[in-house]
Amino acid sequence: MELRLLVTFEKVATVLSFTRAAAELAYAQSSVTSQIRALESSLGTELFDRLGGRIRLTEAGERLLPYARQIIELAEEARAAVTGAEEPTGSLVVGTMESLTSYRLPPLLELFHHRYPKVRLALRTTIGDETRQALRQGTYDLGFLMEEETEHPGLESEVLAIEPLALVGAHALEVSATSDLVRHPLLATEPGCAYRDLFERELKSVFPDVQFMEFGTIEATKRAAAAGLGIALLPEVTVAAELAEGTLVRLPWEPPFTLRTQLAWRAGKRLPSHARLFLEQARKLVAEQG
User: Fold this and answer.
1) Is residue 52's pLDDT more than 80?
2) CA 271 – CA 76 distance, rounded (Å)
């Protein structure tokens, strides 16, 4: 089995599209098709079922995929060890979320841009289940999670920090108990965001018919809260500037759950040196931010 054929197979198996794989590998689609056929011929079995305009892995393809990924990762390690490259190099696809991309990661991205210019970072904004699935499939190399749980099937993860949350509004309110909150309009980001879902679960334990005004993004939610449209629970880092300026007020209710910012990767994956460097710098950055 040639390494280049395994690389092509792994990409097609990850994105489940010959067209998309060709684009990402900078090949003609016919080249991708011929490489997959060559690999199938050498193994004496079909690796993909062709279903009209869609494809899926056969049982043989499912069995080959983890081996292909291990071989590719080991080849990358070997190349780096032999060449002895002092400057980190390679591509890194990282799943992240709005709260981290906008409020925590800029210093880390700036560091990599200036100090490690040969590391090609690509950020993908997804949350929760989408990020975990992309990591398991190998679409992402690393992924930031902001979750209550720290155990994720099929993944390894490192907790970087406890992520403080703040209930905010335009004015001071007496809302020390959960039952107090439902007397006020509730603002939220989209479902699927861990802190929003945990907040909703807590409120529904007291008031099952609770409803939110949804604003999609953190910025839109903050502006709605500052305009007096209601109260919102958001990561403290995202509202620190508004709390300091006085455009938002922190309310006395404390959430009965804890979120942890984590960096995760596929279980059993050998992280290449530039991925380990990213993890190390992310760990250091979050610790410094407090």
Assistant:
1) no
2) 10
Residues 6 or more apart from 128 whose CB is under 8 A from it?
Answer: 145, 147, 192, 193, 194
Answer yes or no: is pLDDT of 85 > 60: no
Question: Distance (Å, rounded) from C-alpha 281 to C-alpha 286?
Answer: 9
Beta bridge partners of 158: 263
Is 251 a residue whose pLDDT tops 80?
Answer: yes
pTM of the model: 0.74
- Partners of residue 124 on adjacent β-strands: 95
pLDDT at residue 14, as a whole number: 85
Q: 142-147 and 90-96: which strand pairing? A: parallel
Per DSSP, 206 falls in state T
Judge whether 243 and 58 are in contact, CB under 8 Å: no
Could you give the CA distance from residue 126 to residue 110 in angstroms, rounded to a whole number? 21
Cβ neighbours of residue 261 closer than 8 Å, sequence gap 6 or more: 100, 104, 144, 145, 146, 159, 160, 161, 162, 163, 286
Query: Which residues lie across from 55 on neighbouring strands?
Result: 50
Q: Give the Cα separation of 170 and 223 in Å (integer).
A: 10
Give the 3-state secondary structure of residue 90.
strand
Q: Name the least confident of 29-33, 89-93, 223-227.
A: 89-93
Q: What is the CA radius of gyration of the chain?
A: 23
CA distances from 246 to 25, 154, 155 (A): 50, 44, 41
How far apart are alpha carbons 45 and 198 in whole angstroms?
A: 47
Q: Give the whole-angstrom CA distance, residue 259 versus residue 195.
A: 7
